[in-house]
Amino acid sequence: MKRNGKISTYGFLNIDKPSGLTSSTLVNKCKWLSGVPCGHMGTLDPLASGVLPVGLGNATRLFDYFLEKDKEYIAEFTFGVTSDTLDSTGELIRVGRVPTETEIFSVLPTLTGEVWQVPPKYSAKNVNGRRGYDLARAGVDFELPPKKVRIDDIALLGAAEEKADTFRLKIRCGGGTYIRSIARDLAKALDTHAVMSGLRRTQSGCFQIADAIPFSLLESDPTVEELERWIVPTERVLPFATLALEGKNAERIFHGLAVEVCKEDGLYKIYQDERFYGIAEVKDGRAKAKTKLC
Questions:
Q1: Residues 204, 205, 210, 212, Cα dihedral to 10°
Q2: Catalytic residue positions?
Q3: Of 246, 290, 247, whose CA–CA distance to 265 is shortest?
Q4: Fold of 11-66+209-233
Q5: 11 Cβ contact partners less than 8 Å away, ≥ 6 residues apart
Q6: What is the pTM of this model?
Q7: What pLDDT, on a 0 to 100 scale, did the predictor assign at position 131?
């Protein structure tokens, strides 16, 4: 069925992705509903649910500004089992023991801070031009190099209901951190094995689960007008101050020229005739338009 019309306002949809749905399927639904190109800001595995920000139209140009965003997850780790994918969707093998809450709590501080983490082989990491998950599925033997990630805090929430081998944890971390790898590394510190058996993202940068749109609303095929009411404008998600421009400076910067300003180095929001134009960068007392969004 063909969709008529497209949105006139660009920005972000903060969507609560359900478990069992791929991130790309959700993005394709947004593209069909909005009539403009779309992209997600930080993929979620099919097993995972929760916050998935989707950029609509020119908002996708902002993704590079959110690479270091803070994230929060509620994860379930099942101990005494391992799999090739490091989660419960892979081939499960019973091996190792189930630690106590006290044991888990005692090693959590060793996993926080700036740490070196080996990504899962079943991931989108690029290996000589091919995705890790493609190589893993093809049975190719390969190793992924460790990368430095930031894990701010891991809090043990307790045992999962009716699951003596499964524990729930709240994890706060930076972008690029693999929760499946945390399950593996936590278990290794306890001389056992574990897989991620559940995951819900509750925060991605400024996007919170409390404000997320249930995917069921998108499945109901809302009109363009209804969809636009849910869009978070691009200027609201940018943590930058506004750079006021007047006279010739305003004319020059919108023609791609650098202008002198009395501002500290950094990124600023700029407006053209009260309309959000995009982002400017100030360096050594000179400002220049960096990313155009209108």
A1: -60
A2: 45
A3: 290
A4: Pseudouridine synthase (3.30.2350)
A5: 55, 56, 59, 231, 232, 233, 234, 236, 237
A6: 0.90
A7: 80
